[in-house]
Amino acid sequence: MRRTVREIGWAVRGACRGSDPELFFPPAPSAEQESRAKAVCAGCPVMDDCRAYAVRAGEPEGIWGGLTVRERRGLRFPAGWRRRAAG
Known about the structure:
Number of helices: 4
Helix content: 40-55%
């Protein structure tokens, strides 16, 4: 079950609140766009809450808490997390 912004009280205090959503959820991501989005996140008072939510919820798109999908996946599934089964 996905939470709405109303259920995530910290989201209304986010630095991204007045930004164009395409900055964080671009149709065609680029290194420049990613850098601009991360710059907004860097000064955000709720960046840690945003990041924790996105990692916990497994957000499949966008930049949340200054992290891309790949970076969040790396936190959820660090290198070596899947060990080969003995057999």
